[in-house]
Amino acid sequence: MSFLPAALGALVDELNTSETIINMSVALYMLSMSIFPISWSAFSEEFGRRSMYLVSFTLFIVFIVFSILCAVSTNAPMPITFRLLAGGASGSVQVIGAGTIADIWESNKRGRAMSLFYLGPMLGPLLGPVLGGVLTQHLGIFFLLPVTLARENEPTATRELTRLSTRESIRAKSSEFTKSLKHYLIEPLSVLMLLRLPPVFLTVLIAAIASCSVYILNIAIESGFADSPYNFNQTTVGLAYMSTGLGYILSSMVGGRWMDSIMSKEARKAERYDSHGKLISLPEDHMKENAWVANSLYPLSLLWFGWTMYYGVQFMVPISALFVFGFSSMLHFNLGTTMLTEFVRKRSSAGVAVNNFVRNILSCVGTIVAAPWMKGVGGGYMMTTLYVSVMWTLTLC
């Protein structure tokens, strides 16, 4: 999906459609990634993380196939359909990976590990638009992982051999199919009940609005820099995304260590030690000055970008805002994901799945409305609305 933002304008021209329709390929990709991880999370807790990783690696090949099919699309519905399918094939690793981090890392080191884990997904926004812009303009390993959540051995129920009539056999098979359907399609949705917990709900809501802001900003970068007074070509638009990506990387390198040091400092200040002398951490120990920095800078950077682009200020000024946004929003995402794994320690992947479900739905909506919204009111007023939404949700905490 990281290739698409820099290529949206070219896709509109080549497929003879509107920008909103092409943005649907990104939006439905996000929608697919919001729904499928719920099942991946449930399956990983039932069958173990390793089994789901092996399935994920197989689906990665499917993801590549659907991405190739997008490249040979001849009309607008084709990339939309293939991106929808690609989202389902690629939505497992983030959920299961975050659960694995929570399984094997202690609380006082989890922030650092989570930052490094999210560095991988964030390399896409750094490299994808650059490569996508270049390609658009000029060309129109398996590895073994330990089992981190093994299944307990369950006693095998013995069944007496009985002779069933044909009708009873059909009824038995039908009942078994119904139970399987309920178990694999309906029961995974029970993780959404975690939203009844106020700490989980507030964390997910704030993270969802931040994620929605990312995708609205991605559309605004392409739309704003491709139009007057900047008139960037696809390659230059792709390079503009590097500023956000560099902010992501810097935040991944320092944000996790910062979070862990804050948590240890708060536990020592409260003199919380167990019988072995180890620090006892609480979820709220993660959120101190780092939360203030993240939740202050990222909404302010939206205003900075929106209004400087609205008035056509020299291009380095809005690009600098993108770097600040990348740094602060990554702090925000890392903090939110780590907090969720603390709130639901025994079901960490379920907490992350709920987070992905809500935030990707909002991201889907944001991607659809971003282009007409920006054309209707301008980037400055659009980003101001986002700023007000962010600050309102923060007051709920």
From TrEMBL:
It holds the Pfam family MFS_1. Residues 1-397 form the Major facilitator superfamily (MFS) profile domain. The chain crosses the membrane at residues 20-40, 52-74, 80-105, 200-221, 241-259, 316-336, 357-374. InterPro entries: MFS, MFS_dom, MFS_trans_sf. One of its GO terms (biological process) is intracellular polyamine homeostasis. It is found in: Membrane. Its main location: membrane. One of its GO terms (cellular component) is plasma membrane. SUPFAM superfamilies: MFS general substrate transporter (SSF103473). Keywords: Glycoprotein, Membrane, Transmembrane, Transmembrane helix. GO terms for molecular function: polyamine transmembrane transporter activity. The keyword Membrane applies. It is a multi-pass membrane protein. This is Dityrosine transporter. It comes from Gibberella subglutinans (Fusarium subglutinans). The lineage of its organism: Eukaryota, Fungi, Dikarya, Ascomycota, Pezizomycotina.
